Amino acid sequence: MVTADWPGVDPEWSRDIEVASSSAADAPGTVRRWHLLDNGAQLSRRGLAPAGTLLCVHGNPTWSYLWRTLLAAGSNSAQPWRVVAVDQLDMGFSERTGTFRRLADRITDLGDLTDALELDGPVVTVGHDWGGVISLGWALDHPQQLAGVVLTNTAVHQPAGSPIPPALRLALHPAVHRWGTTTSDAFLRVTHSLAHPPLTPEVRSAFLAPYRGAARRAGVGNFVADIPADASHPSFPALTRVAEGLHGLKVPALMLWGPRDPIFSDRYLKDLITRLPEAKVHRFEGAGHLVAEDRDIATPIFEWLAGQAPDTRPVGADTRPAGADTRPAGADTRPAGADSRPVGADSRPVGAPVPSAPPLWAPLTELAAGPAGSDTAVAEMAANGTVARSLSWLDLERNVAAAAAGLQETGVGPGSRVSLMVPPGVDLTVVLYACLRLGAVVVVADAGLGTRGLSRAVKGATPDFLIGIDKALAAAAVLGWPGRRISVRELPAAQRRLLGVETSLAALARRGKLHAGTVPPVPAPDPDAPAAVLFTSGSTGPAKGVLYTHRRLAAMRDTVAATLGIQPGARLVAGFAPFALLGPALGAVSVTPAMDVTAPRTLTAQALADAAAAIGATVVFASPAALRNVLATRDSLSRSGHQALERVELLLSAGAPVAEPLLAAVQEILPSASLHTPYGMTEALPVTDISLEQIRAAEADAATGTMAGAGNGVCVGLPVHGARVALIPLAADGTAPGDKPVTVPAVTGEILVCAPHVKEAYDRLWLTQRDSARTAGWHRTGDVGHLDAAGRLWVEGRLAHVVTAPDAVITPVGAEQAIERLHGVGLAAVVGVGPAGTQAVAAVVETVPAARRAGPAAPQLAGRVREAAREAGVSVSAVLVVSSQPTDIRHNAKIDRTRLSRWASAVLAGGRAGTP
Question: What is residue 888's predicted lDDT score, i.e. its pLDDT?
Answer without folding.
Answer: 56
